[in-house]
Automatic annotation (TrEMBL):
Lineage of the organism: Bacteria, Bacillati, Bacillota, Tissierellia, Tissierellales
Parts of the chain that traverse the membrane: none
Sequence ranges assigned to domain Guanylate kinase-like in this UniProt record: 4-182
Keyword Zinc: no
Keywords from the UniProt entry: ATP-binding, Cytoplasm, Kinase, Nucleotide-binding, Transferase
EC number: 2.7.4.8
Listed name of the protein: Guanylate kinase
Principal EC category: transferase
PANTHER family assigned: GUANYLATE KINASE, GUANYLATE KINASE-RELATED
Species name: Citroniella saccharovorans
Similarity remark: Belongs to the guanylate kinase family.
NCBIfam families in alphabetical order: guanyl_kin
Amino acid sequence: MRKGKLFVVSGPSGVGKGSICSEVIKGDENINFSVSVTTRLPRAGEIEGIHYFFRKKEEFENLISENSFLEYAKVFDNYYGTLKDYVFEKLDKGENIILDIDTQGALNVKANYSEAILVFILPPSLDELKSRLMNRATENESELKKRINGARAEIKKAINYDYIIINDDLNKAICDLKTIIYVEKLKTDKKVIENILEEEI
C-alpha cells in the first residue's frame, strides 16, 4: 500500500484557500482535512474528533512537553495544534491529509516532517485581495490595512513552499490543487518498488 501524503495549504486571509480545499476534499474520498486539537470550548454543533479534539489547557501543555505536535500555536487565550500520531496514523493507512494553516505553522510542520508538501495560495494581486476582503464587509479600514500588511509578510514566505497556486479563477485553482495531489501520487515510491521485487513468481 502506498503511504498517504500530507499537503499543507497556506495563504493570506481572503485568498480562498478554505473554499479550494473544501471542494478538493468533496471530490476525493481518499483525502481529508486534518483534525486539530484545541483548548477552546466546543461551539454549537461541533463534534469531538470531527471538528476538533477538545482538550483542557493542562492536557495540551502536557502534549507539548511530550513533543506530540507537528505544529502548535497559541491564539489569544487558546492553543491549537496538529498531533503527530493522528496524522501519521492516517498516512500509514494510505490516506492523504490536507492541513490548512498559516505560514509559521506550515514551516514548523516541514521542519518536523520533511515529506510534507507545502502549497501556497496567492491572490492575483494585493489590490484584488483587498477588494475581496472589502466585499466580505467584516473589517473596517484599519483592520483591512492590518490584513494587507499581514498578507505581505505571509507572501514573502511563499518562496519556501513546494507549489504556488494563483487564485484568479476558483475552478482553475481547485483543478490546480487536484493536479498537485495527483502528481505527488505518481512520484517514485521506493516501498512500492521493493514490494514488487519481493514477489515470488
